[in-house]
Task: structure prediction
Amino acid sequence: METFSVSFTLGKASAAHGANVAHNNRKYLADNVKPRETNHNINFKMQRVESAYQELFGAAVAEYNARQKRPCRRIQDYYAHIAEGNREEPYYEVIVQFGDCQTAPVGSHRGNIAATMLEEYMMEFEYRNPNLHVFNASLHLDEACPHLHIDFIPFYTKERQRGLKKGVSMRAALIEQGFAPQNAGKNQLEQWEESERNILESILHRRGFEREDKNAHYKHMEIPEYKAMQDAKRVAEALQKMERVSDRDLSVESVRAMKEELSIAKQTAKRLEEEKHLPYRSFFYATDDKQVYVQQELERRGIPYREAENGFEAQVCYLKEIREIERSYRTPATSYRDTLRDDIDRLLLRSSSFQELLQHLTKRGYEVKTGKYVAVKPPHGERYIRLKSLGEFYSERVLQNRIQSKLQFEKKIGDDLADAVKTHAPNVMVLRTVCVYMENFHRATYPLRKRMPDKPFMWTNDPEIDKLLALNDAINHGKTLESIRADFAKLTEQETAAAQVLEKMESVADGDEFQKAQGYYARIRRELQKASDQLELAERVFGGTYIQQLVRENNQRRQSEYIPSGYYPADGIRR
Result:
């Protein structure tokens, strides 16, 4: 009969490697994580521990504080009170696993069975442990073998003569669940751990497997610790081998080892020398924030790079340092409210009515509650959020008005395009580009960007449409591609002439004439930049490459989310 080993490890929040919620939720990626597989992970619950404390103990703390006549005895923040104290752990974490990386690796048949059994164990955990509140739980399928992280807060409910009527205590929680301490033998914690291991064994039996007893009890170790332990084992084995050989054999073995090390060192030096002459590589990122962070770190460390149209370029010999910088980047925290606003802005542009907007939110995983006020609960949120509480642009009436304005804008663009086609107007290509842009945005081809960050996202607040409509207005006033090119050439000549004037007037840099010439040069430079942007836009629109370039740039950004080594050779050819 097939067997699986069973691993059940309990850790404390205060221990060095006892619990790491940020790692569990992939706020950062450790070296042993496969980024391409992270989207396969299953997050059963993702609640902030502070929010869980408020939910569990908010009423009890308020009642306790009301009884205290001396303000110094009142509890302002119960989570901080427990975390900063020495009596109780603020929360615990268990890591559960069937098999190991040799017997049940991720992606294998046995690995899939192990993942299914872990899901089954998770589904029954809270029902079986009513005094252990799970605030975070993740099944990881992006490492060597499937394993489950469960973070929970133990609490008691039986009223106490002094203190909180409901509070944190692992011992009291397990006693309430029936694991009473005994005079001799196992305490309540050992009894509970044994009970949970028996549950894991019963899951195996239900599926026709036996438990493999490895007779090993290891504490949970981080990856560097585990590797260090394995290195120590190899050193011990080598020492044992050396004890069994003669002095002559030992000398020969030492000379051979030194020759191997010298050969490896020479190969490494040769490889590093070759890397210095390798061509540049283009690095790109899914978000502008990450790119700015990486470039700032490169400058701080003195690593050379050069700007590129989409990202930056650096030599491959700096790849290791760049990857280290990328791993240190932390995505700016976004609240449920910020995410909800962005989702509403995007989904509103795909909706023709308020009810259709609510349907799109439901498909996206939100729970919608209608009544006097419309409220929605995010996919991993704990509470409903009233739309009116999101700000002046998100009440039901304002959202309905925004939808009507959006429909009127789209109708006007459609009518203008139809009229331009009938009259063979020169702005047909521009209006068609606007329509294709909006269609692609509906299909989520482009990221959501705002021209005015403090305003909600609408067609009138989209920087790309704003530029296209400015070009359309210029063409309606008689501009053509040829005249735009001529304007750019004229401004280029004026900029060159103004620069020459400034150069001749360097000797009188403090005079009024110099200040006027300097102001004129700055104004010409601004106009030249504006003309350059308009010419580039016009050439892309009339050349039919505007949409293709937007799609290509966005695809490169999207690929950077899934390609862990996300870079291109500087020649643009993917290898």
